[in-house]
Automatic annotation (TrEMBL), chain A:
This is Hpt domain-containing protein. Keywords: Two-component regulatory system. GO terms for biological process: phosphorelay signal transduction system. PROSITE patterns: HPT (PS50894). Residues 37-126 form the HPt domain. It comes from the Bacteria. GO terms for molecular function: protein kinase activity. It comes from Hoeflea prorocentri. InterPro entries: HPT_dom_sf (IPR036641), Sig_transdc_His_kin_Hpt_dom (IPR008207).
UniProtKB/TrEMBL annotation, chain B:
InterPro entries: 2Fe-2S_ferredoxin-like_sf, 2Fe-2S_ferredoxin-type, Adrenodoxin-like, Adrenodoxin_Fe-S_BS, Beta-grasp_dom_sf. The lineage of its organism: Bacteria, Pseudomonadati, Pseudomonadota, Alphaproteobacteria, Hyphomicrobiales. CDD domains: fer2. This is 2Fe-2S iron-sulfur cluster-binding protein. It holds the Pfam family Fer2. It comes from Hoeflea prorocentri.
Length: 126, 106
């Protein structure tokens, strides 16, 4: 049977309470962003995984950025991308880091969130 | 119109006259069948419209495609006859189809 992609009027869900919003990537959010185009979703997620890894390396890697201004610019970029694709745990971790860009614990939290998202994306793209 | 029976988890039977071309999920939502959430509205992105196709119908309905199978990984208590109801399109050959709603969704 051919996959049915036409989007039926979705029921209202209380924000933050749906099963999808509790996953590393909110696939329902992503489906809305891409109008349910699975090929686009996969492409976007792979791009996001690559970008998130680059950002984490710039934020927390061995040769990380030392200027707060530069660091914040990368954190904001990551937060924006994460929001777009539905990686809300990464987005939240980036938002916290913006408040104190030199806090090591917040760096670790962001790295953990990105690793979770990477694993989730690689699992989907297997 | 095609006859469709959706059995809620408490045993309540919803006997529905479904329009060909619609999906089982759409009919469940229109008839307020409890236990079908369909959070993504049919985009095959959430696994909250999971149903068990009745054993007698599983062959006729067929197996899920890869995309649906991936989503079923997120569903609760997946069985060999599990399908996402948003991916089952009603047609004449499914006249009399019976599906069961699981205990809970993803």
């Amino acid at each position: 049977m051919v996959a049915h992609l036409e989007i039926f009027e979705p029921p209202q869900c209380e924000q933050g309470k749906s099963p999808s919003s509790e996953r590393p990537i909110d696939l329902v959010h992503l489906a809305r962003q891409t109008s349910g185009d699975k090929e686009t979703e996969t492409e976007v997620l792979c791009l996001f995984a690559r970008q998130a890894r680059q950002c984490v390396n710039q934020i927390c890697g061995t040769n990380h950025l030392t200027e707060t201004k530069d660091l914040l610019a990368v954190v904001r970029t990551l937060r924006g991308s994460a929001n777009s694709v539905g990686a809300f745990s990464v987005s939240r971790a980036a938002q916290y880091l913006e408040t104190d860009p030199m806090d090591g614990q917040l760096h670790d939290a962001l790295t953990d969130a990105v690793v979770d998202v990477e694993n989730f994306i690689f699992g989907l793209a297997r | 119109m095609t006859k469709l029976t959706i059995v809620a988890n408490d045993g309540t039977k919803f006997e529905i006259d479904a329009e060909n071309g619609s999906t089982v999920m759409e009919n469940a939502i229109r008839n307020a069948v409890p236990g079908i959430e369909a959070e993504c509205g049919g985009a095959c992105a959430c696994a909250t419209c999971h149903v068990y196709v009745d054993n007698e119908w599983s062959e006729t309905v067929g197996a899920p495609e890869v995309m649906e199978e991936d989503m079923l990984d997120f569903a609760f208590d997946v069985r060999p006859t599990s399908r996402l109801s948003c991916q089952i399109k009603v047609s004449d050959e499914l006249d009399g189809l019976v599906v069961h709603v699981p205990e809970r969704q993803a």
